[in-house]
Each structure stands twice: as structure tokens, then as C-alpha cells.
Amino acid sequence: MTTIRDVAKHAKVSVATVSRVLNKKGYVSKEAEEAVLQAIKELNYQPSSVARSLYHKTSGMIGLLIPDISNPFFPELARAVEDVASTYGYTVVLCNTDEEIEKERKYLQALKQKYVDGVILTTSFLPYKEYEQLNIPMVALDRYVNENIPLVASQNKAGARLATEHLLEQGCQFIAHIRGPKGVTPAEDRYEGFKEVVEEQEVANIVISADFHIDEAQKVTKALLETHPTIDGIFASSDVVAAGAMKAAHMMGKRIPDDLQIVGFDGIPLGNMLVPSLTTVEQPIYDLGAVSTRLLIKQIEKKPLDTYRYEIPTKLVVRETTKGGENSENAEHYRCR
Amino acid sequence: MTTIRDVAKHAKVSVATVSRVLNKKGYVSKEAEEAVLQAIKELNYQPSSVARSLYHKTSGMIGLLIPDISNPFFPELARAVEDVASTYGYTVVLCNTDEEIEKERKYLQALKQKYVDGVILTTSFLPYKEYEQLNIPMVALDRYVNENIPLVASQNKAGARLATEHLLEQGCQFIAHIRGPKGVTPAEDRYEGFKEVVEEQEVANIVISADFHIDEAQKVTKALLETHPTIDGIFASSDVVAAGAMKAAHMMGKRIPDDLQIVGFDGIPLGNMLVPSLTTVEQPIYDLGAVSTRLLIKQIEKKPLDTYRYEIPTKLVVRETTKGGENSENAEHYRCR
């Protein structure tokens, strides 16, 4: 492989001069610069990006911290981050933290040591001070960290209102909300949206908790429907939870949407694979990832940000688990907020 | 931040001496070494991993090339690669190639420039020579590249035999195989397994092609069932394709498994979320990723490999889309090959 020494020798200049040309820093005479560029061309020299990293303290890498790539919300997000990063010449280092504080700390330190240029956090359990000390540009995606870290999120509360209003419009009289984990901001916001609507419209309701896993959602829904057989609408905090609720309803012989209507949240491909296909509040998952990455790169390039809080609208996609869409085999109805 | 110069000054030795201690290369006196180690401890100096990269021409990074992380086969695979890599102190750079040759080439060059220690290929469209010239340890996962690159794959053919035999045992008399793209080795192997069984047992059969996307699978299955309404069994080349076939059957009023039995391939979480839940040939997806990563690290560490072809057994998981499992709500039956 051609080294910087070969280039210097060929151009008859010092290694330091080649370095100055490559890094566009310090004085180099016109002749020397031309000789170096010519030598680089003739020898087909490709400067090591590692050497450049060391000099510039940048690496062309972005760290992406997620709880678990096998959770179906994250692959599309990761895809968007990688697409945008790649357009701007960055590569993406994938880190699964399992929501464990020690794993998160370990990854962030490793990323810092590699001169990673920025980090996107979709999971953030450290005290804010630790993020601050790292002194790396950061963006919080989906979950709020601190007012100093820009947040990109869906309009979760407005989306939850859409879902709840749709169930009421379709005639539901006793609605359950299967809420996500407490302390997770998007889950809190969806809960708030649900509560607002059922209180405004004075509808019978019940709220129960389940994490974002299908088996627990199935178990919890089964118990719920056994205790309250008159429940005729469920707003689930995620599509995976909705899929679990559908399995429970199926096991208990409930017909969807005739006996029980269900709305999910997320808009992952799964919803369209289910039979009946799932009515859901679609998050702009790809956009969330893309906007976060552009925002991170803006910070890396030291450009000013217009705002520290980007909220992206969600939309209701009416499919077959609610009555509004059951007659149209393939047509999907959208409402945005 | 503490630099190597601070350490040298504190230990009253030269920067070169500190570097020799850090890199465990060259002669350093016992006293100097102790002084350096003491200074590192007192100043809490963390050597930059980038500086070490430049010296050792390694980066502690592994590249993972996949077609698209949003294809549900890959998240679990990526997760396994990252888990094992992280145990050995490596981070993972994620690259989505979309099966495009230019994207693949661009990524591999970027990875080479970053002194990536090894690469796992699940997609490989370049001529073998280009892989060879990169001179980076590599493992081929799922798809065969060349005899010089170790391959880790499922026993696709044996798995396809299990699926086809199961359909016959459950009484199917006219079986369709929806095969995956030509030239993709796992799809070819599954097709071979299917053909072997239907020829041995002289069963009516038809083979049609579809890529691994749900919409095409649905369309293709609908046309197939319209032309051949007596088809009573489908072996799909992937779970996503099976989900598409189920949607088509549902639209046409076919009862599963009474009128039509369906077996998928992969064992992704989707299969268990469908109603009825999908009988499938389960690949050891996590194991495929984990074994590949260990094999790659063995190569990086210049340890000898026992073999260049690892085939991991698949197993049949009988759920509700075939008659063998319809009566047992939660019990799953396994058969290994």
C-alpha cells in the first residue's frame, strides 16, 4: 500500500509538507502543493481515514444507541439513520443497550475513544451530567433527555387522541388503553392523549400497563377481557401490543371488529401482515431517523439549529380492526394531525 | 483531556517511551515502565483508540454488510453479531447495501480505510477478486461467496425437506412451492429440498417465484389459487412470503388449515404474531450471527479454522397453519434435522 512517505519521496518534499497539503493547514508553496497533488494522483494514494481521524479528532462515524434492534420499531429507524449518514459520508456504529445503564455507559466511552463525531440516543438512562462531560454532539430520538439535547419525536399525544376519537366515532362505549412503561416519554404522552379524550367525552374506560412485548400484551389482554367482557375497544400503545391483544381476542372467540375494535400505534410493517390488518396511528419512523441524523450533522458542522424540539405529525391509518375500514379491502384512509 | 505528552512529562520520560509501554513494543527499562504506568494511573490517561488504530492498523471494529435491516430476518442477526463482537471488545459498523454492487463496493472501501478488523458479508455481488484484494478477514453468512471465505449457513435443503414432508404427512395432495430469487443460494437449496421430496413421493406440485416481499407474495398466491383451486398445501420460501400467502388465502375465503395448509421458513417473531400462528422451519438466526462473529474473530486473531463450511440444523415448528398443530393452543412441536 502506498504510504505518506512514498508520496513525499515522489514529490521530493517532506512528510510534513504532504501532511499540510492533506489537512489543508499551514503554509505550503504553490509548487510543493502541485507536486504533492500530482504524486498523490500518480501513486493512487488514499490517505488513511484513521490518520485523518487522529489529526482532526474526527472519525466520520456516528454512534446509534438503541435498546434492541430486534424490536420491530428500530430497524426502519436504523435504516434511515444509515441512509442519511451515508449521504453525508458518515458510517454508523450500532449499539444495543438493552436499556441497561452499564451497557450504555460502556458504549458511550468506547465511541468517545474512537472520536465518533456524534451520537443519536433512543435510550438514555445516564444522569445528564455524563452526557455533557462526553462533549460529543447528540440528538435525542423519541425520548426526551434534557433541554440542551435536541429532541426529535412524533406528536404522540395528538396521535393518541386520533386513535381514541376514532374508536368513539366507530361506536365504542367502553375503551381500554394498554399503556407502555412508565417514565418512557412517548408512552406517557400517548396515555395523556387517551385520558384527555375519554375525560372530555365522559366515556367508560380502563388503563392497564404492559411492556412492549407480545406475550405480555396477550396475557394482560386476556385477563382484562375476562374481568370486563363488555370492553368493545382497545387502544394499544404499540403495534406489537395490539398484535398480542388480537391473539387474546381470537383465543376468547371475540370477533374483530364486530365484538372488539383495536387500534395500534407505530405503523410498523407487521400491522399490514396481520389478518385482519391493523388500524394504527402511523409514526413517520423513517422521517424520525432521517431528521435526527440531519440535525446531528448540523451540530457536527457547528451550524445553528432553528429549534431544540422537532415534533413530527402522526396519522391514523384505518384498516380492518376497526369498523371504519372493514368494507374496503385495500383502501386505506388517512387522517393527519 | 490528558495527552500522551502529559504522561511523558509527568513520568519524566520521552513520548516515544510512553508509546513503547502502551504498545508493548521495543525496549523500556523497568523503572521507566513503572513511572509511565504510575503516571497513567495518576492522570487517569485513556489512550485514544484512534492512535492505537494507526499504530497497529486495527480499529476494534467489524463491518456488517446486509441487504436491508428492515427485512425482518436481519435485526436478530445484527443483534447476535453485535452481542458477540461486544463481548470480544469490538464494535459493529452497520452497512445496508440494498443488494447494489456500487453501494457494496463503496462501503467496503470505507471500511478498509478505517482499518476495520473484519467483515461479515450477508450480501456479496462483487467479483471474488475484489474481496481478495481488500485483504481483510471475512465470513460469508447465509450466502456462499468463494471457497476461500468461510461460510456459515442453515441446513436449508434439509429444512425444506422437513417442511414438504410435513405437508404430505398432514394429507396434502397438491403442493405449491413459492420459491425465492434465483441465484440466491439459500433459496436454491430450499427449492432443491422441496423438489427431492415431491419427486421421491410422486406428488402433484407447482413451483412459482416471488421475491421476499409480502405484497408480491400475496399477488402471486392469489393468481396461483385462482388458476389451481385444488392446491391444498403451500411451502413458502420465507415467513414474510407465507404471511402474504395467508393474506391471499383469507381474501379468497379459504380456511387455514382446513382448506389450505401453509409452512414458512425462517422462524422470525412475525410467525407467532399471525392468526393462525404460522408453522415454519426455524433457522437458528441468532446462532448464525453468533457463530459467524466468533469465526471472524478467530481469523482476526490468526487462529486456525476447523472447517470453511458451518451448517447449522433447522427445525420444524408446528403451529396452527398446518393440521398437526391446530388442536394445541400453545404447545409447539419440534422436529430437528
Question: Could you explain how this protein is built, in words?
Answer:
The structure is a homodimer of 337-residue chains. Chain A is of the alpha/beta class. Chain A folds into 3 domains: 4-47, lambda repressor-like DNA-binding domains (434 Repressor (Amino-terminal Domain), Orthogonal Bundle), CATH 1.10.260.40; 61-154 and 286-312, Response regulator (Rossmann fold, 3-Layer(aba) Sandwich); 156-282 and 315-336, Rossmann fold. Chain A is 45% helix and 18% strand. In chain A, the strands form 2 sheets. A 7-stranded mixed sheet of chain A has the order 7-6-8-9-10-12-13, with helices on both faces. In chain A, strands 2-1-3-4-5-11 form a 6-stranded parallel sheet, with helices on both faces. In chain A, strand 8 (233-236), helix 11 (239-251) and strand 9 form a beta-alpha-beta unit. In chain A, helix 1 packs across helix 3, helix 5 (74-87) packs parallel to helix 13 (285-300) and helix 8 runs parallel beside helix 9 (185-200). Chain A is elongated and about 85 Å long. The N and C termini of chain A lie far apart (57 Å). At the A-B interface, helix 4, helix 5, strand 2, helix 6 and helix 11 of A face helix 4, helix 5, strand 2, helix 6 and helix 11 of B. Strand 2 (91-96) of chain A pairs antiparallel with strand 2 (91-96) of chain B.
